Here is the input.
Amino acid sequence: MKLAKGPAAWRRQGKIAHVFLLPWLAGLLLVTAVPLLASLYLSFTDYDLLNAPNWIGLENFQRMVDDQRFWASATVTLKYVLVSVPLQLAFALLLAMILDRGLKGLALYRSGYYLPSLLGTSVAVAILWRQLFGHDGLLNSGLALIGIEGQSWLQNPSTALGTLVVLNVWTFGSPMIIFLAGLRQIPEELYEAARVDGAGRLRQFASITVPLLTPIIFFNLVLQTIGAFQTFTQAHIVSGGRGGPLDSTLFYTLYLYQQGFQNFNMGYASALAWVLLVVIGIVTAIHFLLSKYWVFYGDN
Here is the structure.
């Protein structure tokens, strides 16, 4: 069967393609674009979900300046991003390098290590984390066996955020799979030449593996940073939706949820959402601007 050629055929094929794209375009418009614009309008209003929005201009944004819980949530989220993302990527790269050594049953190991990423943001795993780090949890039971008295890790302001960092590091599967794919693309000849020149494993890692993996590292860094800024489920379930002791796990998205759906300050919540969007955009732009100094592509 020969495909029709010529301008008329191309136009007809283009129309057919647009028909198939209609469901996606409808979803983009109804699920993303319209709610996005609606939230932008609501961010300039006083809206409680029950009464009609009342236009108040920039008052919601001005309110953030004196809102101590806003600054507390921003601080908690920033700490979480700065600590959990590098640890997660480092752990993912370490395991990817181990799996890249050609272990038997590699597919089984890959699936097993990827499983936490599929479950890591679920309610069930967050509840499991509460049981693991609670006062009578599995961790304290293990410490008791060696004579160490445990604590309620989730109720201690100095350790509560750390438990959520560990949970995020535990969901290393997605970046690990991407790292593993990148490692498989590095020519073995480069390592052989380095070994001939007397380079050890550490030198090979610093001079070959890391430079050739920088595009993959950059890709994972951007994705995981964006995801970390939007962390919600873990903090909501583990802290019971309150933000933990002394707001130590009051993530930005959790505070946004409290304002919008507990306090019915939907206008203020919309303003918070737009501030988060702008911050994520700025951080992502900074990543791209700095990438030219440390990310090396094949044509560099």
Remarks:
- The mean pLDDT is 87.
- The first strand starts at residue 45 and ends at 46.
- The chain has 13 helices and two strands.
- The CA atoms of residues 21 and 194 lie 50 Å apart.
